[in-house]
Write a structure and sequence with these properties.
It contains one helix and five strands. The protein is of the alpha+beta class and 72 residues long.
């Protein structure tokens, strides 16, 4: 089973982007999404942005993850 996590792009340099997962920032490759821009939400899997997301969909998923973490 694979898991991808939504994140917001906050900086781009060539084919690399800094994304924000809420309380954590990471560098990811955007080679698969050359149309991605700052402010976009993307699904991140294994260090790669693999899909653009609508902001509402990304926030719903992030809220669900937050509920799971808080329930532990």
């Amino acid at each position: 089973m694979c898991l991808s996590v939504p994140a917001k792009i906050i900086n781009i340099k060539e084919f690399s982007a800094v994304v924000d997962f809420g309380n954590m920032k990471r560098d990811v490759s955007i080679m698969l999404l050359p149309e991605a821009k700052i402010g976009d939400y993307v699904l991140v899997h294994a260090g790669f942005a693999i899909q653009l997301l609508k902001e509402d969909d990304a926030k719903k998923t992030l809220d669900a993850f937050k509920e799971i973490y808080e329930a532990e």
